[in-house]
């Protein structure tokens, strides 16, 4: 196994209030330290906003603006344009939002920022639901998952945000996982060097929201990647797909079994889940292989 | 055509184009805008000036007024001078962020063109859109003419940046926004001398790691409102000072509350915006006919200049409050405000007259008739619909 390879400049402090074992804090540590101190953050109401700290405490050492839940992308754009007007165009403007603030209520503002190709790095911590309010479904929640607002299981699929973002033809989109921190850091580093709108979606298995054991968030994320539930890949200019991990090495069973939200699934539900994953993986591989012939 | 005192050049401008010229002269750094009738000529003139190379600004065209205001507040937190413009539905879509920007002490200047809120759909002059933002913490100023709109938008930056409160300047749809008048456009040097660059001491800056807007406890939230109250208490003085200083530079002086022929008035009209012009003419005619009428033109609605209103109405037997808005279930908003301001001052009988709600025309003759009708009328606490 690779050692975690990034330089910790202390931009994220211990003592924050994330749940014990939460990998969102881990991801935040890697992202902030990869970007470095010439960064201004905008965070919308989400677990990240809580982890960053309530007044007067702060776990992050970059300047940070807490905006409203639907405004993350628009706010980041305002910061960036103000910096450009003030002659500081090289400062990275980092946007931190959850999946509710990205797939749902902040989607309109994000789409507009992508259409204008505003120069921001947008990180979506995707824990597949409104976990900060106690675990309700978002449009990122997978089919059949039990949440506070889908007690019988969600009846529709997770929104494919990557495809929607790709249709905006923004320069960089990637997925990342706390199970692959070197890959995450490399993607953040790459995004930092690109002008325009960059979006990285980070899978965050939520301990209470998904019903995962306190010590199993990294393991659950790894199973998601290995089963192809959450493939790691990049999309360049909305056209060129690059797989970060070329193989899907295991069936979905082990991933589902980690989580209480899927414990009610019948064998036919699991088979349906597996079929969906296999088909999505095939489509993704086809796109990635298409690029080799471009 | 150069003006007498060489302070500017006279152009024929609509109210909205006058606003755009004022904004250009104030040198904002960032202007996010979204089109809406009847505000759009402000947006289009600004983008035209930018394209012509006459206006150096970061122009942003987000997908909604809501994102416009989010962009404004974040740019302002980064130390930029920020302007936007909107109207009616757009202003109301921003409502959540109007509270947020005021609480965040964001020095934003916004121009709002007063238009009827739907339903039913309408595009007519009515001030309910901005008056229903009364409690958000925005300073609100109402303008009567294109010239006043140009001048006031420049003042607004000075007020917003001194008080660290957002300022909304309003003028009526079409009557002011699209009416063309000769407008003195000041020279840049004059505006630069009046309005120094925005240099906030607290801002989002990589030189330090300050966090803004994080969740607070009850005491800190409470303290935030007390600090807003202290800032609001300064605003009337800032508005008067800006109006006085501007008068010294241009010959055009303004105040928070302006009096017209109030000497020995037996009946005073109190109103805001374009109605003031009509009332002024009615006052002249009434005075000619022997009825001592006067006008109190309220420019500053928030914070309400209560003491100035009480002093101006001291000894005036009848005050007719003309509202071009209607708060269902209560009456005209300005009437409610005046009742509160005049509490305990029983020597003035107040009448709340709903004139021009929905943009219906209010003629000079109608206003003259009101003065005659209510001079000796029995007191009434209820709103009165004027035909």
Overview of the structural elements:
The complex is a heterodimer of chains A (294) and B (387). Chain A has one domain (23-292): Rossmann fold (3-Layer(aba) Sandwich). With 294 residues, chain A is an alpha/beta fold. Chain A is globular, with a radius of gyration of 18 Å. In chain A, strand 1, helix 2 and strand 2 form a beta-alpha-beta unit. Helices cover 38% and strands 14% of the residues of chain A. In chain B, helix 1 crosses helix 2 (40-51) and helix 1 runs parallel beside helix 7 (146-163). Chain B has two domains: 8-250, Rossmann fold (3-Layer(aba) Sandwich), CATH 3.40.50.970; 257-385, Rossmann fold (3-Layer(aba) Sandwich). The chains are: A alpha/beta (294), B alpha/beta (387). Chain A binds chain B through residues 37-40, 42, 49-50, 52-56, 58, 60-68, 70-71, 73-79, 81-86, 88, 91, 108-109, 111-113, 115-116, and chain B through 29-30, 32, 57-58, 60-64, 66-68, 70-80, 82, 96-97, 100, 204-206, 208-217, 220. Strand 2 (64-66) of chain A pairs parallel with strand 9 (211-212) of chain B.
